[in-house]
Amino acid sequence: MNVTHASFVTLPVSDQDRALAFYTEVLGFDVTADLQVPPGRWLQVAPKGAQTVFTLSGPGMGGFTPGSTRGIMLVTTDVDADCAKLTAAGVEVDGPNDVPWGRMAGFTDPDGNGLMLLTEKEGM
Length: 124
Description:
Blueprint: E1 8-12, H1 16-26, E2 30-37, E3 40-46, E4 53-57, E5 72-75, H2 79-88, E6 94-99, E7 102-108, E8 114-120
Parallel strand pairs: 1-4, 5-8
Antiparallel strand pairs: 2-3, 3-4, 6-7, 7-8
């Protein structure tokens, strides 16, 4: 096998514009693609400098169920500060909590897709 990285992760959403606002304005992601292609809009976002992007898959794009994605781990240098920013933006956050591999918190996007924030413990 010669796999080097994941290209994209699909996040099924019911409203691409609402999801775009959340991922760019709240999480600070960049838009990496916004194209009209059959059968709909190909919309991708990513943290600055990331290799893996997130496809915000709207209705008609693959038959995915909005809010069905779980366990997306986003690594951050300061989970506490990021949780405070999310809370200030009206996002309900579970944590942060200490875990053996660092400090972690959970939240959902407007459609209910589950995401985690993690500040990794040094040496992990």
